[in-house]
Amino acid sequence: MAAKQAKWNKFEGRTDGFDYEGPALKKNWARLHRGDCEPFPDTAYVKKLVDKHPDLKPDMPIAEAASTLQDAWRAYHRGGFHEAFTLGQSLGLLGGNVANKAENIQATYLEHDKETKPAMFLDVVHRGEELQKAAPDVANSWYLYAQALGRYGQRISIAKALADGLGGKVKGALERAIQLEPKHADANIALGAYHAAVVNKMGGLVARLTYGASKEAAVEHFQEAMKLNPGSAVARIEYANGLAMLFGKSKLAEATRLYEEAAKCEPADVMEWLDVELAKSEIAA
């Protein structure tokens, strides 16, 4: 499994301004997690979560687990994805979300091996399934699972992914995440991208009748994401890509504007910096 890799490629880009040591993490948490609505993991929250879902109980005192979880998120935000993953794994399923988010970003941006990349996404999928069973009301267990499954599906082609039933699983998990957390901007982005990709590949009629996908739903989810997280670069990137898939040249000007806006967004952590740099590279191409 990808989780057992001895070495992950190290992030070599900008890190200044992305250290959230001590109380800075909590102070900036709402901004850092505006997209995924992950709750701040203080002792009170972790205790409440473990009391409700005993399978999440870590092999250490709750206060220590909360501190470790916060350190994992600090590592994640400054681009220490392997450290974040390792700290998350040390907490068992309690650290599943930070481990999954770190591995998803590592696989998306920093892993280039054709066999390792999809294996990492599958690793997240399997861990997400375990977390869903243990704590079915944790929104990001569904969102990060869907993100990984969707990106794995892209590696095997959208047509094959749909034929294998992956599309329905992705759509269902994203809808579940939004049901649990209606302000989940990132799940709306991903659901918009799902609708756009299916319509683009299968055509409007088949997409609607067979997969429940439509142009209208794609645009609605992208716009909702922009409303929920107006400073998001990735929301603009995915919206632009969706417009290009759904409407072609007729929406080229709007797609270009969205990319230009994404390139000007101010990142709060390494993941957002990677998104902004992606937008800049697309504009320059």
Write a structural description.
By secondary structure, the protein is mainly alpha-helical. The chain has a domain at 1-135. 69% of the residues lie in helices and 0% in strands. It is built from 15 helices and no strands. It is globular, with a radius of gyration of 18 Å. 50% of the residues are buried.
Helix content: 55-70%
The value of Rg in angstroms is: 18 Å
N-to-C CA distance: 35 Å
What oligomerization state is this entry in?
A: single chain
Q: How do the SSEs run, as a string of H and E?
A: HHHHHHHHHHHHHHH
User: Structural class of the helices, strands and pairings?
Assistant: mainly alpha
Whole-number mean pLDDT: 95
Uncertain residue ranges = none
State which percent range the strand residues make up.
under 5%
Shape: globular
Number of helical segments with 4 or more residues: 15
| Total count of strands | 0
Major pleated sheet: none
